[in-house]
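The instructor's notes for this session suggest beginning with a concrete chain rather than abstract definitions. Hand out the sequence below and ask the class to guess, before any prediction is shown, which regions might be ordered.
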Amino acid sequence: MKSPITGAGFKIKAVGVGGIRHGRIGGYWLSANIPACVVGHNRELVNGVYWAAKICFALLRNFLASRGCTVKGLSYIEWGNVFIGPFTLTYLEECESRDAALELLNDIRQHVEAVLNHGPHSRPGMKAAYVKPDGAEWPEDVFTLYIRDREFGIALYVKQPGVAKAFSREIDEPELESEVAERSGRTVRIEVTPHKAWLAENDLDKPENWRNNPDAYKKVFGLMRVKIQLGRSWRVKRMQKTSVRNLSLSQDDKTCLLLHLSGKDPGDYPVLNVYPDANARSKRFSAIRKRVFDETGIDLRIPWRVQQAGVRPGLASVFEYPGEFEPHEHLRTVVYSKTTAPAAYERLEELTAELLRAGAHSGADEAQGASGESADVVDDWSDPVPKQGAFDGWQDEYAD
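After discussion, reveal the predicted structure:
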């Protein structure tokens, strides 16, 4: 489907009663890049889940009206039955130059791969952090960094011009287009996509629960900070053996730390080999690992050379929650904002009303021509009997 405002594409699927794919329709699933559907691009945007959901609702109503649905038919599609998720929130980290943005993105990659891709996530295909295209290396290549989690997904990248299949309509005023494009090219985009289960557990799977709720946006941003462990006190400076001896750790803990600093794996720790049971070894290692990190900022799960080279303690201050993005005043009508989102919703509703009026006139003309009677004949068709479970389960099964 195409947005009647910008021509950007979006997807609609009809969902059967009770979540089945066939039979009587019980609901609709809709997926859209809302900024593209509203202003033609998403290079700068204000996160606004409530208005994004309202616009999706209006797009659905407009589509159905364009296919002949009547006012009465649309009345059965109620705002109160809308569930949302998964969806993506975008946080923008503006840098001084494009090179600075790409360098920051590479720093994030080094940190994330060091922190997340060891232990249970070290095997190919199981890595918690990875990049596309495969094998991309900065500064020769440009890449997108992805982070997996059971409850959410994260993507970090810097926008590239001329990406194939990416819908982006230029702003009509050349000066504004140039300004937005230049700033977008030096901005690291942090996209966090909470999954439907997390949204439901946090009571955030209904649009109304995002209205006037700034803490929800901070909470989603916090998922990224916790996942890549920005709140931990990491050590990357060299540690001398004499310094280890002076630590307030047990002798066993100090021995494990010294072995770690010399490049040994946890499997080489004598204190762990006394346990024949793997579960017991794992519990003992976890306890030692926690005590050592709390004392030194060194994680025994990450090879010491990897931690020294990859971890970026300074990212914690760079990626503080930025708050709500505020576009420059002269750009508020050309980017997705608190100005353009409500206006787009109203425009979609106007277009839908026009379609409904045109359909009503057409239907009246056809009825009069067929029977010779007045178009004001009362409809004697009874309303369909509501079926229990008309919307049960569809948002869970098809929200992806």
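Then share the key points. Residues 10-85+330-398 form one domain. The longest strand covers residues 25-32.
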